[in-house]
Amino acid sequence: MSTDRRKFLKHLGTSVLLTSASLTSLAAKEENEVRILREQKRVSPNDKIRIATIGMGIMGFNDTKAALSVPGVELVGVCDLYKGRLDRSKEVYGKDLYTTNDYRNLLERKDIDAVIIATSDNWHSQIAIDAMHKGKAVYSEKPMVHLISQGLAEIQAQKDTKMVFQVGSQRVSSIAYRKAKEMYEAGAIGKINSIEASFNRQSALGAWQYTIPTDGNIQNVDWARFQSNAKVKHDFDQNRFFRWRNYREYGTGVAGDLFVHLLSGIHFITGSKGPERIYAIGDLTYWKDGRNVPDVMSAVIHYGDTKEHPAFQVTLRVNFISGEGDHGTTKIVGSEGVIDLGGEGESFTIRKNKMSVAPGIGGWDSLFTYTEAEQKALMDDYNKRFSPTDQETPHIPDITYRAPDDYNASNDHFANFMESVRTGKPVVEDAVFGFRAAAPCLACNDSYFQNKVIHWDAEHMKIVG
Question: Boundaries of each GFO/IDH/MocA-like oxidoreductase domain copy (predicted)?
Fold first, then answer.
C-alpha cells in the first residue's frame, strides 16, 4: 500500500467513505470509493416571500412543503378544483388560509409575490402567462407546456414581463447533478457518444392509478372549469379528473411526465440545447383502464455535433409494468467511461475503462485459424512492438458520489427560485431551458401517435420539415 493511501485511510473524514470491500481487502489495489457530497449552506433571509399554490394534488402539496422549507417563505392561499383538497389545505396550513377554485382570484391579490403551478399539464402555460402579466413570479411544474405550440408565447411573456420564471425539474438543482456536470466537463469519461436513460415501475400507483375520494363527485369538483380549455368536452369522469395523467386531453403521458426529467438532467450536464431527430414507439401493454396513452414507451433521439458537444444519441424508456421493479437510471457513455446516475439522481458512479495501447492478439481472434508458423511469427512481432505494460488493460477504480441520506433536491430547487425572487439573480431553469427539455419529449408523443420521425430545430425551438 502506498504512503499516500495510508495517509488517506488515516485521515478518513465524513466527506469521503470507502466501501467495505476496500476496507477488508488485503490486496494493495485501489478499490471503489464513495464520496459524500455536501449541500451549500444558505443564509437565512430577512425578506419574506408570500406564495400561493395553484393545484393541490400530489405535486402541489409536495411543492408547497419544499417551498416552505426555505426560510422566509409564507403560504397565503391555494387553489384547487376539488373541494376536499381545499379543506385539506386548511387542515394542514391553518383555518385562515385563503382558498379558491378560481386561480385568477389569487393573481388579483397584492399580498402574493409568487405562485406555484401544479395543475394538470393542460393548464400550465395559460396560468403561467396570466400570472406573469399580473406581476407574480412563477414556479411551473414540468412540462411547462401541454403543447409544443405554446412554448414560444410563454417564453415571450417572460421576456415582456421580466418576471422570475422557473420550471420545476429539480435535478437541475441537485448537488449530485452539479458534481456530475463538473466531472463530465473535466473529461472524466472522455468524448460522449451515447446516453441511456429510463424509468421502470411495477405498481398501480406508479402507473398513475391514484386513490379517488368517496366524495369526488360532480358536486365537489369544478368539472366545467377543469375541461374548459379542452377541444373535446366529456361528461364528468372521476378517472379523468383524479387520474388526469392517463389522458392526452389533460396530461402528456409518460413522455411529458417522465422523459422530461431525464432530458432536463441530460441537457444540464451536457450543456445541450436539444436534439435534431426524434422517433418513439410504444404500447398500452397492461394498464388498460381507459387511458389513451401508452404504459411502455421507448424513444431514440439524435443530438448533432454542436459547439456545446459532439454528436451523440439518446435512448429513453419508460416501462410501467417492468419485472425489474421500481428502478431508474441515466447512463452517460463516453469513449473512456460512464457516468451512471441512479434513482432520482441523488448519486452517481463513474466507471472508467481505457483500451490498452496494444490492439490485442489471440483469444476471439482469427489468429488460431493460421498455421503454427504464421501464428508464431505474428506473436513474435507483436511482442517486439508492444511491451507487457502496453498489452495490459488499465485498471481504474470506480468512484461513487452520493448526496446525504436526508438530502432533497426539490428543497434546493425552491431555494434557488426564492433567491432569484429576492435578488433578481438568474434562475437555474428558465423558460428557454424548460421548453428545450419539454419540447423533444412532447415530440415523442407526436412521433408515437403519428408514426414518424420528428425533426427539431433546437436553436430556434421549432419543428421543421
Answer: 234-339
3-state class (DSSP) for residue 392: coil
Cα separations in angstroms, 401 against 120, 132, 261, 351, 444: 35, 38, 20, 12, 32
The C-alpha cell that represents 124 in the structure block: 400550465
Closest CA to 292 of 355, 217, 239, 331: 239
Divide the 465 residues of the chain into consecutive groups of 10 and give the mean pLDDT of each group. Answer: 37 36 36 81 78 98 98 98 98 98 98 98 98 98 98 98 97 95 97 97 98 98 97 97 98 98 98 98 97 98 97 98 95 97 87 94 96 98 97 93 92 96 96 98 98 98 94
Residue owning grid cell 457513455: 333
Domain that holds residue 117: 49-171
Task: Indicate the length of the chain as a whole number.
Answer: 465
> Which pLDDT score is estimated for 42?
66
Grid cell, residue 46, equals: 430577512
With respect to residue 94, please indicate whether it lies within any of the assigned structural domains: yes
Q: Which residues pair with 280 in a beta bridge?
A: 299
User: 287 by DSSP, 3-state: which?
Assistant: coil
What pLDDT shows up at residue 267? 98
pLDDT for the residue 465: 81
Residue 79 lies in a domain: yes
State how far the alpha carbon of 115 is from the alpha carbons of 44, 143, 274, in Å: 21, 16, 28
Residue with cell 413570479: 137
Give residues with Cβ within 8 angstroms of 126, minimum separation 6: 229
Extract the C-alpha cell encoding 76.
Answer: 397565503
In this predicted structure, what is the pLDDT of residue 299?
98
What is the tally of structural domains in the chain? 1
Is 201 within the bounds of a domain?
no
Say which CATH number the domain at 83 has. Answer: 3.40.50.720
Closest CA to 443 of 206, 107, 149: 149
**pLDDT score for 41:** 62
Q: List phi, psi (to 5°) of 316.
A: -115, 145
The neighbouring-strand residues paired with 281 are 298
Q: CA 244, 250, 255, 261 torsion: positive or negative? A: negative
In a domain, 82, yes or no: yes
